[in-house]
Write a structure and sequence with these properties.
The protein is mainly β. The chain has one helix and seven strands; from the N terminus they run βββββαββ. InterPro entries: NUDIX_hydrolase-like_dom_sf, NUDIX_hydrolase_CS.
């Protein structure tokens, strides 16, 4: 059982590969940490997101609401630190969270998202990369 990526609210996520929105298999189950309520800070966040492919499937993590219900899935991501390139941030996050080295294959595609989460506004700019181990 490897290390796990944390959700925005601090809980560990199951890593699952998805094809056509259906669960293809579970890569590994990770212990669930205590749930913390997450709220967006009033600042723009910069994220690097990895579309990590294996046999035509993309690695994704379950997303939970405040009541610990699965409300969706999303590819793995992490924050870009000041002075860090977005591709380096992606590689760092995969190494820190899953203890794997990834190679960036393509990207970035840049997406800006203004959204509401549990009634609070958020703003994020995401650099999306295709990656492989």
């Amino acid at each position: 059982m490897g290390a796990g990526a944390r959700t925005a609210n601090g809980a560990f996520r199951k890593k699952t590969y998805f094809r056509n929105s259906l669960v293809a298999d579970i890569d590994c189950l990770l212990k669930v940490a205590e749930m913390n309520t997450w709220r967006q800070s009033p600042q723009i966040r910069i994220k690097a997101l990895g579309l990590h492919w294996r046999d035509g499937r993309v690695l994704a993590a379950e997303v939970y609401d405040d009541q610990e219900r699965v409300v969706g899935v999303r590819p793995l991501d992490g924050s870009v630190e000041f002075g860090e390139r977005s591709d380096a941030a992606l590689q760092r996050e995969f190494k820190e969270e899953l203890d794997v080295e990834v190679k960036v294959l393509a990207g970035p595609l840049v997406i800006e998202n203004l959204y509401l989460h549990e009634g609070e506004s958020g703003h994020v700019v995401v650099f999306v990369f295709s990656s492989h181990r």
